[in-house]
Design brief:
This protein is α/β, with parallel strands linked by helices and 426 residues long. The strands form 4 sheets. A 6-stranded mixed sheet has the order 1-2-6-3-7-14. A 4-stranded antiparallel sheet has the order 4-5-16-15. The longest helix is centred in the middle third of the chain and has 20 residues.
């Protein structure tokens, strides 16, 4: 770095810290606010590059390409970067044989705080759709496949780090970035790494979108699935039905005794949604299956539900049938904590500095994210929604982010990391 650049960086940091150190958070830190505004176009350029790479959850070639781009950007920013190939894969009903790698980067600072930033690079879209829906800007919106879920999150992380570097700020202990490659298929490969890396962090900021109004979330829904299988015995339905074991009868019995397990007042829901039995009208069915969708607001509720399911299926209509039940926690719930309330309250006060309102949501909205995996073993704060404002996730012709949210979000994340690093979040 040239002496003139070094002097400018020192002046920017001194100005930023002097204002931020004041007794009131009522005034914006002008140096950071100006730099955040200057970073808007570079962030849009990064979004264009990210959106221009197709990276569906099962597109290993595309995922490798976008992982290389993200790794390169993080290395340019000075991070110690590694690609993590998932080894401990949680196999679910729809888990592919191979899943994408994760990008991890670590930035060493001079302080003590351990801060983690997470997002994901995979999308729900199939290869070939990009040519019909390329990146474009229309008025105050930037459109593109995966732009709102969650390529804007990656871009926001990259340019937050760029802002910190322009300020010469390194008062954190470690700043860890983890970009997942299989979030859209419930993170079968990424979940264990996210939980392990997050376990000793002081703060985890997750960069899914902030909705249309820039809100942050302290809780997300847990998503589970139950798979019920009944093995019976086939026989001729007309000539010798007594020689069979009717799997459909047993399945019907099981579903009737498993239908009342929802506890809506607690946010626990179990609904049987898919079933199949039999092959021919004149054959006693030898196999019958059913699937259920489960939702919960607490990790312990899934544990209780699974135990209840396993206990109830022991009561059989046909003793000779074999009944098995598999329960998947596709995504645990994220639960609000005192630590996350304190951090989000501070984030809200930072937004107030620049005259932007912020909602802090404690009730889940039905979706689940990787923030829940990050929260499983950490005592630190985990808050979701630090990405840009936008709309249309998973819609191939209406997915966008609001350009006007870029500078405010960069200001927020930069200031928040600085305040966490200097122990100003009270």
């Amino acid at each position: 770095m040239l002496p003139k650049q070094r002097r400018l960086q020192s002046a920017l940091l001194a100005a930023a810290l002097a204002i931020a150190a004041g007794p009131s958070l009522a005034e914006p830190v002008t140096a950071i606010q100006d730099l955040a505004q200057q970073e808007q176009q570079p962030l849009l350029d990064t979004l264009r590059d990210l959106v221009s790479i197709e990276s569906g959850s099962k597109d290993l070639e595309g995922l490798a390409k976008i992982a290389d781009l993200i790794s390169s950007r993080l290395k340019q920013l000075g991070g110690k970067v590694e690609l993590i190939q998932p080894a401990d894969i949680y196999r679910m009903d729809d888990t592919p044989e191979k899943v994408g790698a994760m990008v991890k980067a670590e930035f060493q600072g001079t302080g003590k705080a351990k801060i983690m930033l997470i997002a994901h690079m995979d999308t729900v879209y199939l290869r070939g759709m990009l040519k019909e829906q390329p990146f474009r800007i229309d008025g105050d919106k930037a459109y593109g496949l995966g732009i709102a879920d969650d390529k804007h999150g990656i871009a926001t992380i990259l340019h937050t780090i760029a802002l910190l570097q322009k300020l010469g700020f390194k008062d954190y202990g470690t700043l860890t970035v983890l970009i997942n490659g299989d979030e859209e298929i419930s993170s079968p490969g990424g979940r264990s790494t996210i939980t392990q890396v997050a376990s000793d962090q002081d703060v985890v900021l997750s960069f899914e979108g902030g909705g249309t109004d820039g809100s942050v979330r302290l809780a997300t829904s847990g998503i589970g699935a139950a798979y019920l299988t009944v093995q019976g015995k086939s026989s001729h339905a007309g000539a010798r039905p007594e020689g069979g074991v009717n799997a459909l009868y047993e399945l019907s019995h099981q579903l009737l005794q498993l239908k009342d397990l929802s506890q809506n007042d607690r946010g626990l829901k179990l609904n049987w949604t898919v079933s199949q039995a039999g092959t021919n009208r004149n054959v006693i069915p030898a196999e019958a299956t059913a699937q259920a969708d489960a939702r919960a607001l607490k990790v312990s509720d899934f544990d209780q539900l699974q135990a209840t399911l396993q206990e109830r299926i022991k009561n059989q209509l046909l003793p000779d049938a074999k009944v098995q039940l598999k329960f998947e926690v596709r995504r645990p719930p994220l639960e609000a904590t005192d630590a996350s309330r304190k951090l989000s309250g501070h984030a809200k006060s930072i937004y107030e500095e620049i005259g932007v309102p912020m909602k802090v949501l404690e009730a889940p909205n039905g979706g689940g994210t990787d923030a829940a995996f990050a929260a499983l073993k950490t005592k630190g704060a985990v808050v979701e929604g630090f990405g840009l404002s936008g709309f249309g996730s998973h819609s191939n012709d209406a997915e966008y982010v609001q350009i006007g949210s870029i500078a405010p979000r960069l200001y927020l994340t930069t200031r928040l990391i600085m305040d966490v690093s200097q122990d100003k979040v009270k």
